[in-house]
């Protein structure tokens, strides 16, 4: 019987009167990618920091491989690595220096530390940049050196806090590839993200978090079944035809249709649980129905539901506006 | 951050096999000892000096200016000649300058700790205080550099310590040891106060009275009684007395022991306070 990689019960963290994490229960099976999905300010980083022994919980408890994160912090530290939301390497040092420094701190001898650093830089395509200060790296390179620093000793649990936010698509793909390899080698990954698409691609299970609470949890499949696997966006030539279009789409897709502020735009979820057809097929039928009714469509797209739409579906309200501090 | 660098870097991103090969599950090395971890963090401080050498300006230019300024400002009036005054002033000005430089430890920590890299350090399974001890060890190098600079300037201006090379080395050693201990006050403030500016402010507020209301510039015998009372309990007075006596070759063991004890007390009080704050941060 092996303990879950992560297990939390009623985890709470309060900053002054702000309950940043408000009773979170999570169970993360070992050897998987677990996605923590939520908008800015949801409490993702705070959860990660508590699990990584950086913050003390104010309530509830958390265990990593069965070890309490407060009472057995040192044991937990020997099994986890953290790649924080903001660079967790030293920007003033070079790539090599960063890795050698950390390897030494993990107990490698001088020679072994240098060898290990060179090996990782090579594997992450950073050999050419090895002697450059990290502050001169591009966003994608910084992310890679940061992840490389986290696997100097292959950790049993790796925290990746928004590892792809702000990256260009190519760098994002590289990070995804790295995550896949790391998991394939037996490391459990807790991945936080603001993108449903990313969680869907990588995670075996996802917890959707909002205002410090888990508002939905399950496999990507089950989540998408409840919120719809796709979103149809339609722009009409003539706004006067919109009521008719709404009626038709609702009938074909079997979901509510949202009208937007723009008088010619419509949005609807497709592929919701219970419908016997996939989102793409439903969408093409919807398009056909519109054409048949003589409604001219200027623009049509089928996309993954965005986090906004997930929120709308789960909470019946949009993502809260950032309150300016 | 140009498109080309990103493109070349991306092109050279190797395959899953190469990546997989580095994910070893070999026996992990034993965790380093407290000393080894601290020295490694000290090495980080050296690397930072190597990359940003301008930061050494503070520890060389400032002491030179202090020495020149006070030698020529007070020399004639207080001792009749600058050369005579220098024999009295130099150990004191050395203590003043080095103790003043200790405040940069707090300022540096305050800026450094806000960066994400400290999150990584704090999740490593190493002896907890190592990151801070290492940082201060790096600063010790700056103290040595400042003290050496002042000694050289002093020797050029005509300072002739009777204690010889050994006396001078012992004096510098004692001063650097005290400064190491004293730095823990600033690491505490560095963790405690919000901004670099406030750390500076508090440091100045403490350091100015401590260094000036002492025996650095004049013999306390000339001061009013109430001031003498303060000067007598001021730790800087004791450090200056000890360093002066070591350099003069008349080993005043009482003062030296006083300084060693004070250093131990400082570390024992401010070390744990700092660590408490560090763990909470
Ligand atoms: N150190 C802190 N002090 C005060 N408030 C904080 C601190 N860290 C986070 N918060 C607040 O806690 C909430 C959750 O933040 P965070 O965990 O960073 O969210 P996320 O990572 O999901 O964007 C936010 O309202 C944020 O302002
Ligand atoms: Mg965050």
TrEMBL record, chain A:
SUPFAM superfamilies: P-loop containing nucleoside triphosphate hydrolases (SSF52540). GO terms for biological process: daunorubicin transport; doxorubicin transport; response to antibiotic. GO terms for molecular function: ATP binding; ATP hydrolysis activity. This is ABC-2 type transport system ATP-binding protein. It is found in: Cell membrane. The keyword Isomerase does not apply. PROSITE patterns: ABC_TRANSPORTER_1, ABC_TRANSPORTER_2. InterPro entries: AAA+_ATPase, ABC_transporter-like_ATP-bd, ABC_transporter-like_CS, ABC_transporter_ATP-binding, DrrA, P-loop_NTPase. GO terms for cellular component: plasma membrane. It is a peripheral membrane protein. Pfam families: ABC_tran (PF00005). Its main location: membrane. Residues 6-236 form the ABC transporter domain. Keywords: Antibiotic resistance, ATP-binding, Cell membrane, Membrane, Nucleotide-binding, Translocase, Transport. It comes from Pseudosporangium ferrugineum. The keyword Disulfide bond does not apply. NCBIfam families: drrA (TIGR01188).
UniProtKB/TrEMBL annotation, chain B:
GO terms for molecular function: ABC-type transporter activity. One of its GO terms (cellular component) is ATP-binding cassette (ABC) transporter complex. Residues 54-281 form the ABC transmembrane type-2 domain. Its main location: membrane. It comes from the Bacteria. It is a multi-pass membrane protein. The chain crosses the membrane at residues 56-79, 85-109, 130-159, 165-186, 198-218, 257-278. Keywords: Antibiotic resistance, Cell membrane, Membrane, Transmembrane, Transmembrane helix, Transport. GO terms for biological process: response to antibiotic. It is found in: Cell membrane; Membrane. Pfam families: ABC2_membrane. PANTHER family: NODULATION PROTEIN J (PTHR43229). Belongs to the ABC-2 integral membrane protein family. This is Transport permease protein. It comes from Pseudosporangium ferrugineum. The lineage of its organism: Bacteria, Bacillati, Actinomycetota, Actinomycetes, Micromonosporales.
């Amino acid at each position: 019987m092996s303990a879950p990689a992560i297990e939390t019960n009623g985890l709470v963290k309060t900053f002054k009167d702000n309950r940043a994490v408000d009773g979170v229960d999570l169970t993360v099976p070992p050897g998987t990618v677990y996605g923590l999905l939520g908008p800015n300010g949801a409490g993702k980083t705070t959860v990660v920091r508590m699990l990584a022994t950086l913050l003390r919980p104010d309530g509830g408890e958390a265990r990593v491989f069965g070890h309490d994160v407060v009472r057995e912090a040192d044991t937990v530290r020997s099994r986890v690595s953290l790649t924080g939301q903001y660079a967790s390497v030293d920007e003033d040092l070079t790539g090599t220096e960063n890795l050698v420094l950390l390897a030494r701190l993990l107990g490698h001898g001088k020679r072994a530390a240098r060898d290990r650093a060179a090996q990782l830089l090579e594997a992450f395509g950073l050999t050419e940049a090895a002697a450059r200060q990290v502050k001169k790296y591009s966003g994608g390179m910084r992310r890679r050196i940061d992840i490389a620093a986290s696997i100097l000793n292959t950790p049993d649990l790796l925290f990746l806090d928004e590892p792809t936010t702000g990256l260009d698509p190519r760098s994002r793909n590289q990070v995804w590839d790295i995550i896949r390899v790391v998991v394939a080698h037996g490391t459990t990954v807790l991945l936080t993200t603001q993108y449903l698409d990313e969680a869907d691609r990588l995670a075996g299970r996802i917890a959707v978090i909002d205002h410090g609470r888990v508002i939905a949890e399950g496999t990507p499949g089950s989540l998408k079944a409840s919120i719809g696997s796709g979103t149809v966006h339609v722009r009409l030539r003539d706004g006067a035809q919109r009521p008719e279009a709404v009626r038709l789409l609702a009938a074909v897709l079997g979901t509510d249709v949202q009208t937007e502020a723009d008088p010619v735009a419509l949005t609807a979820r497709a592929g919701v649980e219970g419908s016997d057809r996939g989102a793409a097929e439903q969408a093409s039928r919807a398009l056909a129905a519109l054409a048949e009714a003589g409604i001219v469509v200027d623009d049509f797209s089928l996309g993954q539901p965005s986090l906004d739409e997930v929120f709308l579906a789960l909470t019946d309200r949009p993502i809260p506006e950032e309150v300016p501090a | 951050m140009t498109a080309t660098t990103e493109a070349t870097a991306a092109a050279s991103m190797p395959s899953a096999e190469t990546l997989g090969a580095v994910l070893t599950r070999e026996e992990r090395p034993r965790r380093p000892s407290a000393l080894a971890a601290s020295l490694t963090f000290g090495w980080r401080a050296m690397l930072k000096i190597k990359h940003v050498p301008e930061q050494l300006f503070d520890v060389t230019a400032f002491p030179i200016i202090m020495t020149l300024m006070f030698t020529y400002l007070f020399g004639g009036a207080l001792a009749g000649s600058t050369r005579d005054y220098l024999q009295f002033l130099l150990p004191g000005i050395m203590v003043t300058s080095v103790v003043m430089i200790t405040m940069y430890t707090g300022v540096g920590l305050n800026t450094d700790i806000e960066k994400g890299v400290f999150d990584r350090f704090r999740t490593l399974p190493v002896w907890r205080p190592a990151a801070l001890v290492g940082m201060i060890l790096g600063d010790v190098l700056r103290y040595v550099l400042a003290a050496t600079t002042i000694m050289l300037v002093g020797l050029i201006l005509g300072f002739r310590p009777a204690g010889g090379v050994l006396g001078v080395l012992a004096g510098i050693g004692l001063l650097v040891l005290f400064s190491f201990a004293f730095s823990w006050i600033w690491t505490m403030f560095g963790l405690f106060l919000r901004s670099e500016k406030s750390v500076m402010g508090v440091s100045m507020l403490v350091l100015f009275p401590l260094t000036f209301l002492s025996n650095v510039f004049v013999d306390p015998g000339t001061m009013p009684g109430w001031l003498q009372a303060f000067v007598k309990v001021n730790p800087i007075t004791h450090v200056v007395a000890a360093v002066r006596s070591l350099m003069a070759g008349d080993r005043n063991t009482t003062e030296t022991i006083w300084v060693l004890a004070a250093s131990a007390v400082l570390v024992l009080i401010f070390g744990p306070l700092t660590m408490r704050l560090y763990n909470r941060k």
